[in-house]
Design a protein that fits this description.
There is one protein chain. The chain is an alpha+beta fold. The protein contains ten helices and 29 strands. The strands form six sheets. Strands 13-12-17-9-10-16-14 form a seven-stranded antiparallel beta sheet. Strands 3-4-2-5-6-7 form a six-stranded mixed beta sheet, sandwiched between helices. The longest helix has 20 residues. It is flat, with a radius of gyration of 34 Å.
């Protein structure tokens, strides 16, 4: 059996968007036959949520998953994420109000996500509804409706009475057929995080949309650096699920840290495999940060460390803090991370690290006896912490002592050569004028000719007003003897500098 034969028709994932108070939640409320509007302050949905419904189409029951995105402008970023995970959008526009600012924001998000959309002109039951005017306002925004010279499907509806809603759902399924949405149910599930929150009684929960594969009890889900065993899984009505497949929204309880909304999630058969994926993600993020060395500074000194922590949430927090340490010349890289005690394998990895052996960090964990002995024999550093800020303070100290000293130039000033008095094998006697900063006796001097470097010498002596001086300030004329093994000419520029070790 080939791969394509395993793919089945996938129900569409639909995002509902539009201006606040144009009836998005009322529309979903009617479709779901449950009242979610009454319990929401001011009628505004305060978070992204997902619902699954069935609709009879051509004699068959078809599933549709809806994502209800917030309508308020403050949630524009969440709304954009909602559009990015959907197959089809419904743009709700009120027939008594027309296109508004947030309608345009929603339309821009839909176009940016490059998904097809259907227009629902709502509130046609209102006495002041004006279908023609609303269609005209859409035309002004280059939304060309079907039967009006365009190809955007649309339906006139009343979310309050249900008029036109079945026709709207038919349009969604027609677009879905055109898209030929298909997915494979056999592999472990993957999809997107739609919403995440902390439940004071049950812990961290997230709403997930499955786009392919199957999610089963006993598996484990990884989203970025967040991990959850599949133990408490529910549908949008709170009913316990043992298994869910593509296009299904599920609520999963038990994440060890709050996953970011919009992240892709992956599923693994065991918690151990999911933990390994989390750790790999941590290392990828660290490597990406390390790669962001500013141009012009050469290569960074990177101090390697190994981190063992009590939970993935702790690892994520430590990784976040470690990324802040260092500067354009130095950084810290986590080369290995894991959950549980420090083991002998960690010491072996530490010894193989470059440019120096890795420091092993334990956070709320112990050290195995074999690891302790290996560290003693090879003079490896193992340090334990139970407070993150103390961990980062110690890493800053270690980075400062481990990084090689750097030599940096400190520019003192510039001058122009006005006259050459003599030129011997290693001694150039000349007169000049300071054009910027100052010239200092004993400093190095870089000679440039027509902006090209000729070489570097040393200021052996300085004279001003027929007296020997230690320095000559901006605007002053001077005589000098420069130690250099090349000829200096009139018109050359002198750059006076010193080198500091830091």
């Amino acid at each position: 059996m080939n791969a394509t034969s395993l793919k089945l028709e996938r129900p569409p994932i639909v995002v509902v968007m539009g201006h606040v108070d144009h009836g998005k939640s009322t529309l979903l409320d009617y479709i779901r036959k449950t009242n979610v509007v009454a319990g929401e302050a001011g009628g505004i949905t305060q978070h992204v949520a997902a619902y699954e419904v069935t609709h009879e189409y051509e004699g068959q029951e078809k599933r549709i998953t809806f994502i209800d995105t917030p309508g308020h402008a403050a949630f524009q970023a969440i709304r954009a994420r909602g559009a990015n995970v959907a197959d089809i959008a419904i743009l709700v526009v009120a027939a008594d109000d027309g296109v508004k600012a947030q309608t345009l924001e929603a339309l821009a998000a839909i176009r940016e996500s490059n998904i097809p959309f259907v227009v629902a002109i709502n509130k046609i039951d209102k006495p002041n509804a004006d279908l023609v005017r609303t269609q005209g306002s859409l035309l002004e925004q280059h939304v060309f409706l079907e039967k009006m010279g365009g190809d955007v499907p649309w339906a006139a509806i009343s979310a309050k009475t249900g008029q036109g809603v079945p026709e709207l759902l038919n349009l969604v399924l027609i677009v879905s057929e055109f898209l030929e949405l298909r997915a494979d149910a056999t592999p472990p599930a993957q999809g997107f995080v739609i919403e995440a929150h902390r439940d004071p009684k049950r812990g961290i929960a997230a709403t997930l949309i499955i786009t392919s594969g199957t999610l089963k009890s006993g598996m484990a889900v990884q989203a970025g650096c967040a991990l959850a065993p599949v133990r408490i899984m529910e549908d949008h009505l709170g009913k316990t699920l043992r298994e869910a497949t593509f296009s299904t929204p599920v609520s999963l309880v038990g994440f060890d840290s709050l996953p970011d909304v919009g992240l892709t999630f992956h599923t693994y058969k065991t918690k151990k495999l999911a933990e390994e994926a989390c750790h790999l993600e941590i290392l990828k993020q660290q490597a990406a940060r390390d790669a962001q060395t500013p141009e012009g500074f050469g290569e960074r000194f990177v101090m390697p460390i190994i981190v063992r922590a009590d939970a993935s949430g702790s690892l994520e927090a430590i990784t976040h803090e470690v990324a802040k340490l260092g500067d354009e010349f130095t950084a810290i890289r986590i080369i290995q991370a894991g959950i549980g005690n420090i083991s002998e394998n960690d010491t072996k990895t530490a010894l193989a690290a470059t440019p120096i052996p890795a420091t092993i960090i334990g956070f709320h964990v112990g050290t195995d006896a074999t690891a302790r002995e290996a560290a003693r024999q090879h003079d490896l550093t193992i340090e334990h912490f139970d407070i993150i800020y103390k961990l980062t303070e110690r890493l800053e100290e270690l980075l400062a002592t481990s990084a090689p000293k750097r030599k940096i130039e400190e520019m003192k000033g510039r001058a122009k050569v006005l006259k050459m008095f003599s030129s011997r094998r290693l001694e150039q006697t000349l007169g000049g004028k300071v054009t910027e900063g100052r010239m200092e006796k004993g400093s190095l001097v870089r000679i440039t000719r027509r902006k090209e470097e000729i070489g570097v010498g040393t200021i052996e002596s300085l004279q001003a007003h027929k007296s020997h001086v230690e320095r000559v300030e901006n605007g002053g004329e001077f005589g000098t003897v420069i130690s250099a093994d090349f000829d200096i000419l009139e018109g050359d520029m002198l750059e006076c500098f010193t080198i500091k070790t830091v």
